[in-house]
Design a protein that fits this description.
The chain is built from nine helices and 20 strands. It has 341 residues and is of the alpha/beta class. α3 packs across α8 and α5 runs parallel beside α6. The relative contact order is 0.12.
Length: 341
């Protein structure tokens, strides 16, 4: 670890918040005080530098501009550091992790996102362990090669592939899960790296950063009883170029004619529709049931076992590349960095 350098990028989130003494509402604190709250940071053999967002964000305010900003910081400092830790609110961490995994093309260093459920200044905070172990993972090497060279989320003793992760609990310390991909590492007395689950990267590759997003995406979450009025109104969203259709079970939707014909009309107009299941685990198989098969027949793309977070961010980035709907389909179906099986 001696000689290793980690850059800690603080974007905001609960981990860096304190309770306002008057209103009792959580608000960002001066992150410069981090070593007062976590003196353990001084004990690391590796060098830790910090980059602070001047206006820390509640992650509900994340958007492609902020993702670009984070990616540009990494791009800028890439040669100077062995690994990066991004402190981020847990609410939209899975979206940011997914977006960064697609943006940082050729990444061969760890980019570990973490945060906490309780502010770092509180006695029972989960933030200390999350922060300390995330730094350890970002700095970890074997035979001079990083052990986790991908965009990952570290939370409550588990290291997850970032673009496979979903926030599942707003109260438990174990706030994340990765239903369709195994853990990259588990932290106990030792940190056990599950090497075969971790991306095999080219150590010589050059980083290039994709920064063009197109936000003209939307999601339509189905429910029994959804009306034609609502769906047709939704389909008329000005500028709409791609959507995630959140379906039932293995990718099934109502087979009523009005529904299929609204979808078909949109696809004929060049709108890309990706089918992602509302189920947390498992994926879409449009060949399994007649209801899913009708979606396949009209040109809906099967999202397989991709998460909603990865699907929507991947679509924004693919649309940003200004390619045809046909090319977007091919690219969507081929994994960029392990987000889809
Ligand atoms: N609202 C916070 C955020 O996402 C929650 C957290 O940090 O966990 O920024």
């Amino acid at each position: 670890m001696i000689g290793t350098k980690v850059l800690l990028i603080y974007t905001g989130g609960t981990i860096g918040m304190i309770k306002d003494s008057e209103t009792r509402v959580l608000k960002p604190f001066d992150f410069q005080q981090i070593t007062t709250e976590v003196p353990e940071l001084n004990k690391f053999e590796c060098e830790i530098d910090t980059f602070l967002f001047e206006a820390p964000l509640d992650s509900s305010n994340m958007n492609p501009n902020v993702w670009t900003r984070i990616a540009e910081i990494i791009e800028d400092k890439y040669a100077d550091y062995d690994g990066f830790v991004i402190l981020h609110g847990s609410d939209t961490m899975a979206f940011t992790a997914s977006a960064l995994s697609f943006m940082l093309h050729g990444l061969n260093k760890p980019v570990i996102l973490t945060g906490s459920q309780l502010p770092i200044g509180t006695i029972r905070t989960d933030g200390k362990e999350n922060l300390i172990t995330a730094i350890e993972i970002a700095a970890a090497k074997k035979a001079n090669k990083p052990l986790a060279p991908e965009v990952a989320i570290y939370f409550e003793y588990n290291l997850y592939r970032g673009n496979r992760t979903t926030k599942v609990n707003s109260e438990d310390f174990e706030a994340f899960n990765s239903f369709n991909y195994p853990l990259l590492a588990e932290a106990g007395i030792k940190i056990k790296y599950n090497t075969r689950n971790i991306l095999d990267v080219d150590t010589e590759s050059k980083l290039s950063v994709y920064k063009k997003f197109d936000r003209n995406v939307a999601s339509l979450k189905l429910f029994p009883g959804i009306t034609k009025e609502f769906v047709s109104h939704f389909m008329k969203t000005p500028g709409l170029k791609a959507m995630v259709l959140e379906t039932f079970g293995s990718g099934n939707a109502t087979s009523e004619d009005w529904f299929l014909s609204l979808l078909k009309k949109a696809i004929d107009k060049g709108i890309v529709i990706v089918n992602v299941t509302q189920c947390k685990g498992g994926g879409v198989d449009q060949s399994k049931y007649e209801s899913g098969n009708s979606l396949e027949a009209i040109g809906v793309i099967s999202g397989g076992d991709i998460t909603f977070e990865a699907a929507i961010t991947k679509l924004m980035l693919l649309l940003g590349g200004k390619t045809s709907a046909e090319k977007i389909k091919t690219k969507f179906l081929s994994p960029f960095c392990g987000e889809i099986s």
